Amino acid sequence: MGGGGQLTEPGESGSRRAGGVYTWEEVQSHCNRNDQWLVIDRKVYDITHWAKGHPGGHRVISHYAGEDATEAFTAFHPNLKFVQKFLKPLLIGELAATEPSQDRNKNAAIIQDFYTLRAQAESEGLFKAQPLFFCLHLGHILLLEALAWLIIWLWGTSWTLTFLCSIMLATAQSQAGWLQHDFGHLSVFKKSSWNHMLHKFVIGHLKGASANWWNHRHFQHHAKPNIFSKDPDVNMLHIFVVGATQPVEYGIKKIKYMPYHHQHQYFLLVGPPLLIPVYFHIQIIRTMISRRDWVDLAWSMSYYLRYLCCYVPLYGLFGSLALISFVRFLESHWFVWVTQMNHLPMDIDHEKHHDWLTMQFVSYNAAPQLPPGGAVKTMWQGLVDVIR
């Protein structure tokens, strides 16, 4: 995600005190909106001004203000050598020799074991993507789109063929969602510009959504998964309460926008059918317009223009709108049951300042507590075997 940014101000302010030595207590005190420091590999950086121009968005980097961001920095930047040059103007010093490398509740043994696992996986080439696979993935999406239109054009708009067309289009939309995810993470090509270009094409022209909207949400989600006020994916807009903490807080504050004791019943009527066709759709349009993101808006409109040109001659305007609504309805169910069911049953709480691996495990997996260092090495070998 490297590139760009306002380097002048932080560079000037940082150069006068680049030799500073700081404690964790001092670093942690710089965690508000107008004063933000973070630590990467024991180096202390002032990101107060840089955050505003951060290519990945100001929120995702601000979530680590006052913390050690080493693991997150490594995970988010595929080309570490390239982004290192943007760190130099921000450097203000380093941690004192008496300070540990990890802050707060982060497990040093787990961090070291995970670093060893990552180095082993990288040395074995397990992070190298196969472009042919992604080309075939894109090809089968385009094929599904073409076949869905072709069967209607050749054999008519009967209910049976319309339903088959809907299934094919919903499958293409869902598969495009997984594909844009990998391009959005810059994990397919070595050149970030190629990933960005394909990301905009897939999420914009093939899905009618916004690459920048997705990046803004999804980067935060991975940076601080299942953490209230930091992960947008657990912001339920008062429609649901999630985790073990939020229901108690709502009860104490007597917040009752919805009959939450019945949410397990109305979830089926609100969550799966409405997430993509209503909530995401409104949020995407609002985000592109409010941020004047005309490039993403053009990509998004190209999808709807293409769709209407293909299906209005076959179904008419009303029928075409009904068809795309049903496709979104099907896709939304698929998306919710595949993605949200991986996160919502897991630990959801306020910031606990866990190390990177623990934070990922408790939000993606049913592992409430990881074993102490040393005992995890057998698990690491098992993970490498699974990756193989």
Automatic annotation (TrEMBL):
The chain crosses the membrane at residues 266-284, 304-327. Keywords: Fatty acid biosynthesis, Fatty acid metabolism, Lipid biosynthesis, Lipid metabolism, Membrane, Oxidoreductase, Transmembrane, Transmembrane helix. Its EC number is 1.14.19.44. One of its GO terms (molecular function) is acyl-CoA (8-3)-desaturase activity. GO terms for biological process: unsaturated fatty acid biosynthetic process. It is found in: Membrane. InterPro entries: Cyt_B5-like_heme/steroid-bd, Cyt_B5-like_heme/steroid_sf, FA_desaturase_dom, Fatty_acid_desaturase. It is a multi-pass membrane protein. PROSITE patterns: CYTOCHROME_B5_2. This is acyl-CoA (8-3)-desaturase. The gene is fads2. SUPFAM superfamilies: Cytochrome b5-like heme/steroid binding domain. SMART domains: Cyt-b5. Pathway: Lipid metabolism; polyunsaturated fatty acid biosynthesis.
